Amino acid sequence: MTRMFLCMMIAVVVFSCFPSAGQESGLSFAREAAFVSAQEIRVQVTITGDQDTVSSVKSLGFQELFPTSWSYNGNYEEYYGEAMLKEGTDKGVNLNANIAGQLDFYWIQIPEFPITIVYGLTAASYETGQTISGTLYWYTEFDDFSVTTSGTLIGELEGEGEAPEGEGEALAEGEVATGSLRGVIRKEGTIEVLSDVEVLLTPGNYTATSTALGIFTFLEVPVGDYTLTATKTGFEKFSTALAITEGLKVYDVELTPVAAEGETETEGESEGEGGLEGEEQTGALSGTVTNKDTNLPLYNVQLLLMPGKYETTTDRQGDYRFAGLAAGTYILTASLSGYSNVSVGATIVAGENKQDISLSRSVTEGEGEPEGEGEGEEEGEGEEEADDCGMCCSSAKGKAFDWGRYLGDFFLLGMAVLVLSRLNIR
After folding, report:
1. Within a 10 A sphere around the Cβ of 311, how many other Cβ atoms?
2. Which residues of 349-387 are buried (b: 16+ CB within 10 A; e: fewer)?
3. Dihedral class, residue 376 (left if φ above 0, else alpha if ψ from -120 to 50, else beta)
4. Are 276 and 283 in contact (CB under 8 A)?
5. In CATH, which of 2.60.40.150, 2.160.10.10, 2.60.40.740, 2.60.40.10 is domain 27-153?
């Protein structure tokens, strides 16, 4: 009886030391894509997973493949969790766009699920049947997994119709000429798309609602002059006159957020504040820092504005902003590990001022980063890490099995058996 009990204990320990086959296979991948103009394609990728799988994932990435005649246009957005919040921490996505016909997205730290990534492509030439495909990768403590994603046809979103193919055939006698209207609705001054916007085309009272990609579409509308209206709670109503012609017309819309109560000043208040004798006029300086070679935004770039020693860093869109600056001339310096510092002059006047900056790499591939510039690389653009394998997940994939831990467990179990035998337990 004692021997049977000891054998059962050994079996439990042995089987608990090894992961069961297929236990980490609970991630799923979905892709949608549609033309938003004659050559521009908007792609949305969603990654979901059950709680057990998500908690075991140590690193994650996916690869997108498309025709080499297409190119990444530099636009992307990332959203996390059920609330679709934009990521503003070091858990955001890293992107490698250095290979033609391929994009690699990867996370060094695992963010909140579900994950939604939206990116843009430019299709200089398009043939019916061309698709976007790829592979989803994730790594756990004991194993690695990959799922090949099926090809996605462009323009197959529900209600979106076919991709633009040019002019149609000649009209039959008595047939009414028609055209189509398609566009993307964004928040004013940003690339953030707006879903569930109610769009109305009059006369005719044609209606549409923008999709998760911000796309609205009207198909086979009689040629003529119309008024386009777009409404969404929290934004000012948009209205414009436009003409529908044969074929596909592309018209994008930007909605202005409604100002919170108390934010807008009355005309008298504005004039009074600006006219106070001796009051100092201030301005703001903003802009975007990009990689000079790829034109991609750079994250966590350190910016120093002198005199005054004002400091800030760029967000994941590469944007920065200084506010409350006295009018005058300044020197703006941008620095990031692995890149050459850039200093530019900036003249500040009352109101908004714009200054974009491009940085060039200071080291060639394989030389490593310059001494003293190690900080920020992981949270920066992340392209050097991605160049090793395209997914930056090799460290998790090649993780060694922890034999020492399990041999220690067996040693303790053996000692317990020895003690039991010395006590003459039967």
Report:
1. 10
2. eeeebebebebebeeeeeeebeeebeebbebbbbbbbbe
3. left
4. no
5. 2.60.40.740
Q: Give the model's pLDDT for residue 286.
A: 93
CATH number listed for the domain at residues 178-255: 2.60.40.10
Range in 50-64, 240-254, 270-284 with the lowest mean pLDDT: 270-284
**Do 342 and 331 meet the contact criterion of CB atoms below 8 Å apart?**
no
With vertex at residue 389, the alpha carbon angle to CA 388 and CA 391, rounded to the nearest 5 degrees, is: 115
**What is the rounded average pLDDT for all residues in the chain?**
75
Q: What is the pTM of this model?
A: 0.41
The Cα–Cα gap between 5 and 1 comes to 6
pLDDT given for residue 379 in this prediction = 42
Per the CB < 8 A criterion, the answer to whether 32 and 213 are in contact is yes
Q: Are 35 and 50 in contact (CB under 8 A)?
A: no
Report pLDDT digits (tens) over 22-75: 334 578 888 988 887 777 888 888 898 888 888 888 888 899 999 988 988 888
